[in-house]
């Protein structure tokens, strides 16, 4: 099965839910990652029930804290 993750085509042996996908892709600190599936942000509560299918496009979004120092 082919999907696209962050713009890169990946081959998966079978359909996975979002939680399993995060694990198989060795995502560090998955609790800090938001997941977009085919242009829609997936609610974290739905990771276990949302299945990634053939030709889906997935984006792992990493939010970074920051700001201007000294302002």
What does this structure look like?
- With 71 residues, this protein is mainly β.
- The protein has one domain (2-62): Roll (Ubiquitin-like (UB roll)), CATH 3.10.20.30.
- The protein has 1 helix and 7 strands; from the N terminus they run βββαββββ.
- It has one helix at 18-24; strands at residues 2-5, 8-11, 16-17, 33-37, 40-42, 51-52, 57-62.
- Strands 2-1-7-4-5 form a 5-stranded mixed β-sheet, with no helix packed on it. Strands 3-6 form a two-stranded antiparallel ribbon.
- The model has no long low-confidence stretch (mean pLDDT 92).
Map the helices and strands.
Layout: E1 2-5, E2 8-11, E3 16-17, H1 18-24, E4 33-37, E5 40-42, E6 51-52, E7 57-62
Parallel strand pairs: 1-7
Antiparallel strand pairs: 1-2, 3-6, 4-5, 4-7
InterPro entries: Beta-grasp_dom_sf, Mopterin_synth/thiamin_S_b, Thi_S, ThiS/MoaD-like
Pfam families: ThiS
Protein name: Sulfur carrier protein
The fold-level CATH name is Ubiquitin-like (UB roll)
Number of alpha- plus pi-helical segments: 1
- Average predicted local confidence, pLDDT: 92
CATH architectural arrangement: Roll
Strand arrangement, largest sheet?
2-1-7-4-5
Parts with pLDDT < 50 across at least 5 consecutive residues: none
User: Which homologous superfamily in CATH is the superfamily?
Assistant: Beta-grasp domain
Work out the count of structural domains. 1
Overall SS class: mainly beta
Number of strands: 7
Distance between the termini: 50 Å
Q: Level of helix content?
A: under 10%
**What portion of residues belong to β-strands?**
35-45%
- SSE sequence, one letter per element: EEEHEEEE
CATH class wording: Alpha Beta
Describe the main β-sheet briefly: 5 strands, mixed
**Compute the gyration radius: what is it?**
14 Å
**What overall form do the CA principal axes indicate?**
globular
Protein name: Sulfur carrier protein
Pfam family, one: ThiS
Organism: Natranaerovirga pectinivora
